[in-house]
Amino acid sequence: MRGTTHRILTTLVALLALQLGSLVAPAWACGCGAMITRPSERIGVDREESAVHWDGRNETVVMRFRVHGDARQAAWVMPVPDRADVTLGDPELFDAIEELAAPERRDRSYFWPREDDWPFDTGHGDGAAAGAAPGGAVGVVGRERLGPFDVARLTATDPEALGTWLRTNGFALPDRLTPELRPYVERKWEYVAIRLAPEKRDERLHGELTPLRVTFASPELVYPMRLSRLAATPQTLGLSILAAHRMEPRSAIGGDRPEVTFSGRLDHPEGPVAALTGGAPAHLTVLEQRFPTPSRISDDHVLRTVADTPYRQVVYRDRLLTLGGVPAWLLVVAAGAALAVTAALLTVRARRRRVPSPV
After folding, report:
1. 178: Cβ–Cβ under 8 A, 6 or more apart, which residues?
2. DSSP assignment of 210-225, as one string?
3. 3-state DSSP call for residue 120?
4. pLDDT of 13-71, one tens digit each?
5. In sequence order, which ranges of the chain are alpha helices (DSSP H)?
6. pTM
7. Terminal CA-to-CA distance of the chain, rounded, Å?
8. In this structure, what DSSP letter does residue 128 have?
């Protein structure tokens, strides 16, 4: 008995340790670029969400992160194809998009009772489906403090020099990031390096961070993803795109197939959505994508125009079919039983009539 109890306790402790470990697992990268913290600290990105507006010439990316862990500082770098302007984003933007793209909810009836329905359960349940080095190799375009963000906008002609500048100036990024920057240096992209530190001393990074808004010129709609190949844990990307037409990625770039969860025309955008589009009409496309094995990410997302087919998810709420508050199946069974009893009585009565009277 003691041996069994000991094994059970050991298993429970191991499972608890595994769960706690997953809560503070390092998120070495996020969809916008590499996110790194101090070696002794851990930061996890629960989810990355980005809203993107593209008018054919200029692109604006608004990023929001929800994080957990014990880190007091973190930094990441986002490659961009042209000179970028960086400001704080509107926290209400994502709530507004979520409301616009909310699934349609419908009721759906079923006939026979399920495990949550009487008589299988005592109650009635409703199922529901439910972010300059020596020699001039690095140029500093600008550096600003935006809320909790220290933002540096950089150019670079050498990935080694760029890595050195980042580490020298408080952006403690790992050596293994340097070779991943080479494709961007060769294409003459620029960089937005962001160091995130709470405004209060020794405060830990936790919860929903203030969105960042990054604007740059681009002849095509691109979302930087290549640096996410450094991630040590599976990544999830939520991407909301506002453009003249419905937009979808050209390829999965090493992740699961991107799923369109909403597609629809916004003729009169309002509030923070209108602020992002400049008040112009736009087609909203909402995408979800998982990257179970980040090391397979092969490139950045380049999105293309497709047919403006509208789409909205439908979430069904299953309800037991009732008539006058009584389950329909019970009425049918009762009616069938009554018919069976009636038929039996009629049969007995008919047989009695056929029995000849004694002489």
Report:
1. 159, 160, 162, 163
2. PPEEEEEE-SSEEE--
3. coil
4. 332 233 223 223 333 334 444 455 555 555 555 456 899 999 999 999 998 876 655 55
5. 2-23, 93-100, 159-168, 178-186, 271-277, 328-354
6. 0.72
7. 83
8. B
